[in-house]
Design a protein that fits this description.
single chain, Purple Acid Phosphatase, chain A, domain 2, 11 strands, 240 residues, 23% strand, 5-stranded mixed β-sheet
C-alpha cells in the first residue's frame, strides 16, 4: 500500500491540482492532508471543495484554527494576520464553522498525523523543540512514525533509542530503518526551501520507504490570483 501525505496547501488551487494529478500516476491508495489548507492563497473555498470531492481527510492546521478563533490570530505576524482576515472574507460561514470540528490528529495505517508537533500540537514548529524533548516525545509515542507539516520545509528526525538524528530531505526515495521518525512533508502551496515546486511525500508501507515528490505547477497564475483578490503582496512573492 502507498499513502500520499500532503500539507500546507494554503489556498493554492493550482499547486493542489498539480499534486493530485501527480498522485494519480503513482499507484497511491490513500491521501491524507495535515492541515493549513487555507490562508495566503486566492482559492481557499475551491481548495476545500476539491478536498471534499476527493474525500481526502484533513486535520486542523493553525490557519484553520485562526479562521474561527481570534485568540490564535494574535500570534500571527501582520502579513499572516491580514491574509487570514482576507481568507475569512473568501470563505462561507459554513466553511469556517466546519473547521471547529476538524480533528487535531488522525492515525493512518499506524502512523500519527499532526500539523505541528506530536502528540497533538497545532501551533508548535518542529525546529522550536530541543533535541532532548524530541527524544522524550518519540520515546513515549506509541507510533513509530509521525507525519507533520507547518514549517513548509522537508525534514526528518530519527530516534533510535539512543540519539536524535536530523535530516534535510530532498527529491527521491529513502528507506526507513528500525527507528522512530518524525517526517515533515513540506508544503504543497507555499514551499520555503529554496525550490518553488510543490512538495509532498508518499509512504510505501510494503517496502518501508518514503518517496519525496516535487511537482511543477503554474506559479504565475497562482501568484497573480493572490494579488487580484487582495492578499498581501508577500503571499504572492513567496511562491517564486
Amino acid at each position: 500500500m502507498k499513502i500520499a501525505i500532503i500539507s500546507d496547501i494554503h489556498g493554492n488551487l493550482e499547486a493542489l491540482l498539480a499534486v493530485l494529478k501527480d498522485i494519480g500516476h503513482q499507484r497511491v491508495e490513500r491521501v491524507a492532508c495535515l492541515g493549513d489548507c487555507v490562508g495566503y492563497g486566492a482559492d481557499p473555498g475551491a481548495v476545500l471543495q476539491v478536498l471534499r470531492s476527493e474525500e481526502i481527510p484533513c486535520i486542523l492546521g493553525n490557519h484553520e484554527e485562526a479562521a474561527y478563533d481570534e485568540a490564535v490570530v494574535e500570534w500571527f505576524n501582520p502579513q499572516a494576520r491580514a491574509a487570514i482576515e482576507r481568507t475569512r472574507e473568501l470563505l462561507s460561514d459554513h466553511e469556517i464553522e466546519a473547521f471547529k470540528y476538524w480533528p487535531r490528529t488522525m492515525e493512518v495505517e499506524g502512523a500519527l498525523c499532526v500539523h505541528g508537533f506530536p502528540p497533538r500540537s497545532v501551533e508548535t514548529y518542529l525546529f522550536e523543540v530541543p533535541r532532548a524533548r524530541v527524544a522524550e516525545v518519540l520515546e513515549e509515542l506509541p507510533q513509530s512514525l509521525c507525519f507533520v507539516g507547518h514549517t513548509h520545509t522537508l525534514q526528518m528526525i530519527a530516534w533510535d533509542g539512543e540519539r536524535v538524528r536530523n535530516y534535510r530531505l530532498s527529491e527521491g526515495t529513502l528507506a526507513l530503518e528500525d527507528a522512530k521518525y518524525i517526517v515533515n512533508v513540506g508544503s504543497v502551496g507555499q514551499p520555503r526551501d529554496g525550490d518553488n515546486r510543490a512538495k509532498y511525500v508518499i509512504w510505501d508501507l510494503e517496502n518501508q520507504n518514503l518517496e519525496i515528490r516535487y511537482v511543477a505547477y503554474n506559479i504565475a497564475r497562482a501568484s497573480q490570483k493572490i494579488l487580484d483578490v487582495g492578499m498581501p503582496d508577500i503571499c504572492a512573492k513567496r511562491l517564486w
